[in-house]
Design goal:
single chain, 350 residues, alpha/beta, Rossmann fold, three-stranded mixed sheet, binds nicotinamide-adenine-dinucleotide, binds 2'deoxy-thymidine-5'-diphospho-alpha-D-glucose
Length: 350
């Protein structure tokens, strides 16, 4: 049986990747390694936890000795590395945590893969999941391609850029078989409500203010999370070693326009008079170093590997809102306790 390590599998995107691989590849053992930080939640994987080809390991990628032992024990054939500190606002409050997990954690995994695989790398692959934020910020025109120069602005994107450089350096210096993908903003089920879409859905539901940073004019390119998971599957199995692939939805939205769509759909779903939720919009102090616009050119992935997004945004956002409304218990669980403190601290001085 082949063994695949997925890191960060209890998080938002990781849980969708684990679900896809466990169900699609019954002859491959999927080991999900996750520290279960505030963002990691085993409830995201209830439907696969008893499958015979799934195993969960709680652990920290920052602990190099532990990671090496895990690789020695399992001798993985492949790695899909998603574990990370992922929220830009938290990286502004506490940058160091991002260096530990995103940079040192990634280097620990690279070292362990290198130690185990040695020269025997023919059927091995280290897949590093990264972000479009490493490319910096666009003006009104243009798109990020795989050759766009790195220009990160937040501690989060700087840490992800650094990890990408290490992954490439291990390929170029040690011949480690790697592949990297850089994806745009994801949306869908199981996303922790610190990120724009689930946070605003939760606030609209609870009649709380909707804190729009700056003038709401920043643009993001939104991709349905299950399409990201499908892209990872395609790249993992068909991608060329040493290459980078951009993944995006060709689906750009100005924040304020997207927020108004959320308000309209939520009014309809909650049986509120049209225009009710928009009244919750509150403009607050902008995010420091806020990138104006991201847009991904995923032409290489589409042409070379045949991936295309499956879902139109209009359908995806309806499905997503329905999911958060139907999964009240999940939302309640993740927004209790520490979340309340986080919210207070993050938004009190804006
Ligand atoms: P997330 O914050 O929802 O999940 C991160 C997971 O990593 C959690 O389960 C957490 O417990 C785990 N983790 C954190 N630190 C760890 C550590 N030290 N050791 C082991 N596990 C640890 O993140 P996400 O939004 O699912 O993002 C997953 C990956 O995809 C990240 O690498 C992120 O940079 C990248 N990405 C995210 C997006 C997006 O829109 N969310 C877009 C492009 C790329
Ligand atoms: O582009 C990919 C990236 O997308 C990923 O690498 C990150 O892990 C992921 O968090 C996401 O980063 P963003 O910063 O773009 O996502 P976020 O949901 O935090 O914010 C989206 C936009 O909404 C951004 O312009 C900031 C704005 N915003 C966000 C929050 C949380 C607000 O106006 N108010 C808010 O309260």
């Amino acid at each position: 049986m082949k063994k695949l390590l997925i890191t960060g599998g209890a998080g938002f995107i990781g849980s969708h990747v684990v679900r896809l691989f466990v169900n699609k590849y019954p002859d491959c053992l999927i080991v999900n390694l996750d520290k279960l930080t505030y963002a990691g939640n085993l409830a995201n994987l209830k439907d696969v936890e008893n499958k015979p080809n799934y195993e969960f390991v709680k652990g920290d990628i920052v602990d190099g000795d532990f990671i090496l032992k895990l690789f020695e024990q399992h001798r993985f054939d492949g790695v899909i590395h998603l574990a990370a500190e992922s929220h830009v606002d938290r990286s502004i409050s506490n940058p160091t945590e991002f260096v530990f997990t995103n940079v040192i954690g990634t280097v620990n995994l690279l070292n362990a893969a290198r130690a185990i695989w040695k020269g025997n790398t023919k059927d091995k692959l280290f897949y590093h999941v990264s972000t479009d934020e490493v490319y910096g910020s666009l003006g009104n025109e243009g798109m990020f391609t795989e050759t766009t120069a790195y220009d990160p602005h937040s501690p989060y994107s700087a840490s992800k850029a650094s990890s990408d450089h290490f992954v490439r350096a291990y390929h170029d210096t040690f011949g480690l078989p790697v592949v990297i993908s850089n994806c745009s903003n994801n949306y869908g089920s199981f996303q922790f409500p610190e990120k724009l879409i689930p946070l605003f859905i939760n606030n609209i539901k609870n009649n709380k203010p909707l804190p729009v940073y700056g003038k709401g004019e920043n643009v993001r390119d939104w991709l349905w999370v299950e399409d990201h998971a499908r892209a990872i599957d395609v790249i993992f199995h068909k991608g060329t070693k040493g290459e980078t692939y951009n993944i995006g939805g060709h689906n750009e939205w100005k924040n304020i326009d997207l927020i108004k769509v959320l308000c309209t759909i939520m009014d309809r779903k909650l049986g509120r008079k049209e225009g009710t939720s928009e009244k919750l919009i509150t403009y607050v102090t902008d995010r420091a170093g806020h990138d104006l616009r991201y847009a991904i050119d995923s032409g290489k992935l589409q042409k070379e590997l045949g991936w295309v997004p499956s879902l139109q945004f209009e359908e995806g956002i309806e499905k997503t809102i329905e999911w958060y409304l139907e999964n009240e218990e999940w939302l309640k669980q993740v927004t209790s306790g520490k979340y309340q403190k986080y919210y207070e601290n993050m938004y009190k001085n804006r």
